[in-house]
């Protein structure tokens, strides 16, 4: 009898738990489908209005752009791009590359010569300290000093040539960059609006 009563008690308990779970599930469904429907409706309406507002602002800003000015900039951009494919520009690039290699070689020679000078100076002073014949090291040291003077001048000359080659090459590329900046300035008020519009559309309707 006690076992039968316990089974009835447990059955009733499971019935209560199941009923509670069903109630919770039904409430969640109601809250999602019915309770929040009005909020979703307002959010969708806001998105539609915001998209419309931003598109209108973008259209207004585009209308402010002077088409003649824009066309002139784009024509100049096309010409500048063609100039970058010209033989004249290619020759400048080759000259710049050659000047770069020449400067690096001059710089490397100077660095090695300075390293040799430091080594000879050490050998000179060490031989003198040990009371050995240091004259060969001393003579080689002064010879290297003169060589370094020459190499320093050569490096400076190579650097000047490189700078001139770089300046001539960049005259082509900087012209295009300047034109691209001019065009970007015409759209400076539009781009932030476009980003806002994309952000609103990416959010989507909840």
What does this structure look like?
The chain is mainly alpha-helical and 206 residues long. It has 6 helices and no strands. It has helices at residues 2-35, 37-64, 67-83, 87-129, 135-186, 190-203. The longest helix is centred in the last third of the chain and has 52 residues, at 135-186. It is elongated and about 110 Å long. 6% of the residues are buried.
Summarize the structure.
The chain is mainly α and 206 residues long. 91% of the residues lie in helices and 0% in strands.
Question: How many E-type strands?
Answer: 0
Gap between N and C termini: 57 Å
Task: Assess the beta-strand content as a share of residues.
Answer: under 5%
Treating each run of at least 4 consecutive H or I residues as one helix, how many helices? 6
Question: How many strands, what sense, and barrel or not for the largest sheet?
Answer: none
Q: For the CA atoms, what is the radius of gyration?
A: 40 Å
What is the N-to-C succession of helices and strands? HHHHHH
Instruction: Summarize the amount of helix as a percent range.
Output: over 70%
The gross shape turns out to be elongated
Structural class: mainly alpha
User: Low-confidence segments, ≥5 residues, pLDDT <50?
Assistant: none
Overall residue-averaged pLDDT value:
87
């Amino acid at each position: 009898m006690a076992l039968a009563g316990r089974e009835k008690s447990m059955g009733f308990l499971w019935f209560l738990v199941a009923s509670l779970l069903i109630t919770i599930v039904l409430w969640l469904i109601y809250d999602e489908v019915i309770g929040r429907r009005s909020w979703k409706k307002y959010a969708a309406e806001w998105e539609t209005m915001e998209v419309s507002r931003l598109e209108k602002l973008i259209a207004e800003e585009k209308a402010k752009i002077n088409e003649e000015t824009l066309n002139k900039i784009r024509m100049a951009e096309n010409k500048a791009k063609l100039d970058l494919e010209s033989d004249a520009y290619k020759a400048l690039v080759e000259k710049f590359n050659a000047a770069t290699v020449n400067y690096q070689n001059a710089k490397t020679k100077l660095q090695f010569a300075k390293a040799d000078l430091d080594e000879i100076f050490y050998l000179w002073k060490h031989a003198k300290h040990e009371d050995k014949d240091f004259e060969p090291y001393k003579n080689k040291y002064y010879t290297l000093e003169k060589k370094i003077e020459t190499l320093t001048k050569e490096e400076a000359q190579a650097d000047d040539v490189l700078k001139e080659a770089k300046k001539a090459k960049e005259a082509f590329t900087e012209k295009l960059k300047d034109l691209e900046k001019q065009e970007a300035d015409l759209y400076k008020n539009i781009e932030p609006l476009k980003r806002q519009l994309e952000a609103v559309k990416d959010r989507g309707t909840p």
